[in-house]
Amino acid sequence: MTREIQFIRTKEPNLIKVYGFGSFFRFHNPSDCDLLLVIKNDCSNLASIHSELSKYFHKIGKKLGVKFDLTILTEREDSRKPLMEHNKLIPLSKN
Description:
Blueprint: H1 2-11, E1 15-21, H2 23-26, E2 33-39, H3 46-64, E3 68-74, H4 75-79, E4 90-91
């Protein structure tokens, strides 16, 4: 999965960090794989970026047999640590 995520980062330069969280990473019979995607503050057209990232992860999910549930935040939003599991995030990309 990490290799595929690094590939996505080469295709989408606005994607700067990818973290995993939730049951998939705690090994408790996951129904999906929760990911937090952090994008640059100054990126334009957030809707387009969201759509492209969703397509990339859907394609990877089919390949790996995993359904991804994406949360996408800007750097500014991420700095506020809005997720309940923010302190348990697992880095999945090299920054």
